[in-house]
Design a protein that fits this description.
By secondary structure, the protein is of the alpha+beta class. The protein is built from seven helices and eight strands, in the order αββαααβββαβαββα. An eight-stranded mixed beta sheet has the order 1-2-3-4-5-6-8-7, with helices on both faces.
Length: 194
């Protein structure tokens, strides 16, 4: 896959629908919804980014994302509830290895909606898009070792645990062990047929 194709596709980010969710481009009007979870230390504890310090920071961040969406170099969807339109998190691709037709995915969700299968539902939609529309062969996800909740989401969508990369990331002043899970296109196809 060529980078130009990625830019073309993501500069016109397609909406993805599931039973309960609409995954769409994030907007500045989502600032209240995003700030509701992005300012919380319990949400960002196992993420590479720190809590948003104030609402204005969230607004600025969403304005910045608008420019990245325009050029097609941002690959994350806002996860919204279909019935209310409320944005409750994000899910998407964090990086691509284009020469290998592989990508890494990530997600974050408002704790109010933890334990309801929503992260897995959103992740499954993104993986389906990656395999069917982008022609990926491999999708992986990483998690800080202590974040067992995130690993459960990965396994729920059919990813296999590959191992722990010891001291692989320096995050928030410490080296963290990082777990890796992945799924291949033929594995995802077999699961989808069941």
């Amino acid at each position: 896959m060529k980078r130009e194709i990625i830019y073309r596709i993501f500069s016109h980010l397609p909406e993805l629908e599931t039973d309960r969710l609409l995954l769409r481009r994030m907007r500045v009007s989502d600032a209240d919804d995003m700030y509701a979870y992005a300012h919380r230390a319990d949400v960002t504890k196992y993420l590479t980014w720190s809590p948003h310090p104030n609402h204005a920071y969230t607004v600025d961040y969403l304005q910045y994302l608008a420019s990245r969406y325009r050029v097609g170099d941002f690959y994350d969807w806002g996860v919204t509830l279909r019935d209310s339109g409320r944005m409750i998190g994000t899910c998407g691709f964090t990086s691509f290895e284009l020469s290998h037709n592989a990508a890494q995915v990530g997600y974050v969700l408002n704790p109010e909606f933890w334990g309801q299968g929503i992260a897995a539902e959103a992740l499954r939609a993104v993986m389906c898009f990656g395999f069917r529309e982008l022609g990926l062969n491999r999708i992986e996800a990483c998690y800080i070792k202590e974040n067992t909740r995130s690993r459960r989401v990965m396994e729920k969508v059919g990813m296999s645990f590959e191992g722990i990369r010891r001291g692989a990331m320096y995050i928030k002043g410490r080296y963290c062990d990082v777990g890796v899970c992945s799924i291949l296109r033929d594995e995802f196809s077999a699961l989808s047929e069941k």
